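Lab notes, practical 5.
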Amino acid sequence: MARLDRCLEPLSRPWTVFYEYEDDPDAPLNANGKRPRRARWFAIGDSEPLAFFAGIWTPWRGDRGSARNPRRGEHELFGFLTYEPNAIVKPIRPKAMPAILTKPAEIEIWLSADCKEAKALQRPYPAEAMTLLPLEPETKEVQQATLF
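Output from the prediction step:
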């Protein structure tokens, strides 16, 4: 993982929250026998004014999109590092959680250190520094906010 391939993805409103989807256990099964999914928001402690996912990106040339509507050409692909989830995230997303950076030193290491030092940041964020926010009724504004 070259230094030039690393980037930061800021967390959402107000820069210290993110969400994962979970199956809604209270909803009826749909036609496919699955439950609808709902967003569950996680908050980083108030002592952290900004938080970022440790991201990676690469240029790529090829076809993206659907078979019916392919988009040919140059693209920039993006992803972020994940690791085993902490105790707060695991009940919602047992597979993984994003690597979260909150300290200026972590951000500097991620963007400029050698691979071995940067990879050490791939770890779960401390559970005691996070909160699973209560469910709120979905409004049109919430649905629009989670589109991007």
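Observations recorded by the TA: The chain has three helices and nine strands. Confidence is low (pLDDT under 50) at residues 143-148.
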